[in-house]
Specification:
169 residues; mainly alpha; Rna Polymerase Sigma Factor, Chain: A; 74% helix
């Protein structure tokens, strides 16, 4: 496969592949590194890629497997809070309100992090990244029924924990 065909087939998938990697590893820099590794693998195997009938599905599988390998490795570092979420919430607020919002976001993030891995992943894909059910099926390999069950359980658990934490606010 020549450079132009490679660019035409695989580069348009970059945004989707990045989103999948970011959701799975929950860190922008790690997602970028994983994606770079995947593109390097694709490039080094470019002569064998002509037989791939569905490049998107092939790439999604590569990214998913690379993310799972990364998650299993000891290199993963956790951020307690996504600063981007806090920045959106604290626009036009007083310093006291900013502190309160920050504390609540940290607590909710901790509750999300306590969910089982599969529930946490589904919740983030659906509620935070706004993926469709079909996209979540493709990313996770789960059926739509399984996804709905996991999402329902995750939301119910979070709702209960937030009520315990904050009362009926």
């Amino acid at each position: 496969m020549d450079v132009e065909n490679f660019k035409r087939k695989f580069l348009p998938l970059h945004a989707k592949l990045f989103r999948i990697a970011f959701i799975m590893v929950e860190n922008k820099e790690d997602a970028e590194d994983i994606l770079q590794d995947v593109y390097f693998k694709l490039w080094t195997k470019r002569d064998e890629l002509d037989v791939v009938k569905t490049p998107e599905a092939f790439c999604v599988t590569l990214v998913k497997n690379a993310c799972l390998d990364f998650i299993r490795s000891a290199r993963r570092s956790y951020d307690a809070v996504d600063a981007g979420i806090i920045d959106v919430l604290i626009e036009d607020t007083t310093p006291e309100q900013e502190t309160e919002i920050h504390d609540k976001v940290v607590r909710v993030q901790e509750l999300i992090n306590r969910l089982p891995q599969n529930q946490r992943q589904i919740l983030r894909l659906r509620s935070i990244d706004d993926c469709t059910m079909e996209e979540i099926e493709q990313i996770t390999g789960l059926t739509a029924v399984n996804i709905r069950v996991l999402l329902t359980r995750a939301r119910k658990t979070l709702r209960e924990q937030i009520k315990l934490l904050y009362g009926q606010e």
